[in-house]
Design brief:
By secondary structure, this protein is largely without helices or strands. The protein is 5% helix and 5% strand.
């Protein structure tokens, strides 16, 4: 037995749509559905806060061309 928690879409005619993980085998399965009283509220997500490391500006003559970064052996 596995427990899979996900969000399902319920239409006004009482039909529910669920996307299962691909490793669930085809065929009939015993399923238990638990419905929360209130629908999930979709609020605005806070922006992602990635750390920033400042190392200054790049040198004026910096070249990122492959031929400038690697020797004739390509390494």
């Amino acid at each position: 037995m596995r427990t899979i928690e996900m969000t399902a879409t319920v239409t006004n005619d009482g039909k529910m749509t669920v996307q299962l993980p691909p490793d669930i085998s085809e065929g009939e399965h015993r399923v238990v559905v638990v419905i929360e009283e209130q629908p999930v509220k979709k609020g605005k997500r806070p922006p992602l806060d990635f750390p920033v490391i400042s190392v200054g500006s790049w040198p004026e003559n910096l070249s990122l061309r492959r031929v400038d970064m690697y020797d004739e052996w390509g390494r």
